[in-house]
């Protein structure tokens, strides 16, 4: 029994996706999907067959890191407006940026901001793109609707990017401010200041924090319909049982749910969600998700990404996640950032692959993830 995901579980930028989630009082819900970039569905027979997905891996992340020199400065100011309950980021200008077009010594830069640790689409704001300049002037205010108490748990990340004519992005540098210790009453902190741009840094501080644990079980079913003459592809069953000791980002409030994607497929079709469970740091979901279209060789190329979110008003705050696979760093011959499973995550995947038709249970620590970009 299932319904469409209620509006409060959807990201604003999800274009009214139609993933399904359990809404009733049933303890165990079961959903079945085929990752679209893992499978081709025959319209005549309904049979599932696997196709090459090496091309889809290239679009998972939206930018190139390390291809251009990081140099220059950015001028901005921040302020919290109590009457509006908004954080205002005034992006004034940049100077002496790196040139993406070496020959003509120019770039097409824009500034992007995030509130960390929620580095999902809900937390992203952008300026307009300035054309053909290394010293862009923006004078734009980027606004975040957020309570002051929650703001104290965040970091503000500003990054500068070059966007080329094919809408590909190249990283030009970033600045990060810790808002936990920011003095909002200091008038000097509301003045425009210049900050040197820095290279991309891994989110070590958040990685080290305790993000709680997830209790789950996986099962690989090689032949869901045994006895059929025609060859069938297998299924991966993911049973999300519960989470333990989730962090509180909003004081004592928590309304958590789990989202699942089978990478390299980042399309909305492959994504599934549990229902949201409120008022507890130890939510019980008992939600089973089923993905079909798996040949044995695909188990070495795919990765199960499970992410835990705290829903608050119109936005979702990222709490932590898992990436369960072989952690080889590659998928279908292409190097990818998301094939980065920890030793514990790899051990669970290996046991599942080596013990077909058997539930393999584990309790794994949640960790910080750079979330893959969702494609249409």
UniProtKB/TrEMBL annotation:
Start and end residues of each C2 domain: 70-195, 210-339
Feature: compositional bias, Low complexity: 35-46
Gene3D superfamilies registered for this protein in UniProt: C2 domain (2.60.40.150)
Cited InterPro entries: C2_dom, C2_domain_sf, SYTL1-5_C2B
Database matches in Pfam families: C2
Protein name per Swiss-Prot or TrEMBL: Synaptotagmin-like protein 2 isoform X15
Annotated region (Disordered), positions in chain: 1-46
Bilayer-spanning residue ranges: none
Organism whose genome encodes this protein: Balaenoptera acutorostrata (Common minke whale)
Entry superkingdom: Eukaryota
């Amino acid at each position: 029994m299932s319904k469409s995901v209620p509006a409060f579980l959807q990201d604003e930028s999800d274009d009214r996706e139609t993933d399904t989630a359990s809404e009733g009082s049933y303890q165990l819900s079961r959903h079945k999907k085929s990752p679209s970039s893992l499978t081709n569905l025959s319209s005549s027979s309904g049979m599932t067959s696997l196709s090459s997905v090496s091309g889809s891996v290239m679009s998972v992340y939206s930018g190139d890191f390390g291809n251009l020199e990081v140099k220059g400065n950015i001028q901005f100011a921040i302020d919290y407006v109590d009457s509006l309950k908004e954080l205002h980021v005034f992006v004034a200008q940049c100077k002496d940026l790196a040139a993406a077009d070496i020959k003509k010594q120019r770039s097409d830069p824009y500034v992007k901001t995030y509130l960390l640790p929620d580095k999902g689409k809900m937390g992203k704001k952008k300026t307009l793109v300035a054309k053909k300049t290394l010293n862009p002037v923006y004078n734009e205010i980027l606004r975040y609707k957020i309570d002051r108490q929650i703001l104290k748990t965040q970091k503000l990340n500003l990054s500068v990017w070059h966007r080329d004519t094919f809408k590909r992005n190249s990283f030009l540098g970033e600045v990060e401010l810790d808002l936990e210790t920011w003095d909002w009453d200091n008038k000097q902190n509301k003045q425009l200041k210049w900050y040197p741009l820095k290279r991309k840094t891994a989110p070590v501080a958040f990685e080290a924090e305790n993000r709680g644990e997830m209790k789950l079980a996986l099962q690989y079913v090689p032949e869901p319909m045994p006895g059929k003459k025609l060859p069938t592809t297998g299924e991966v069953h993911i049973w999300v049982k519960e989470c333990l000791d989730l962090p509180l980002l909003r004081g004592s409030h928590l309304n958590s749910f789990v989202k699942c994607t089978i990478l390299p497929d980042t399309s909305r079709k492959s994504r599934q969600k549990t229902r949201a469970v409120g008022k507890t740091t130890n939510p019980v979901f008992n939600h089973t998700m089923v993905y079909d279209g798996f040949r044995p060789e695909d188990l070495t190329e795919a990765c199960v990404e499970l992410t835990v979110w705290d829903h608050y008003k119109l936005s979702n705050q990222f709490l932590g996640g898992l990436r369960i696979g072989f952690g080889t760093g590659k998928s279908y011959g292409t190097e990818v950032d998301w094939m980065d499973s920890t030793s514990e995550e790899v051990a669970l995947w290996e046991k599942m692959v080596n013990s077909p038709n058997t539930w393999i249970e584990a309790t794994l620590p949640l960790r910080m993830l750079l979330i893959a970009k969702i494609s249409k």
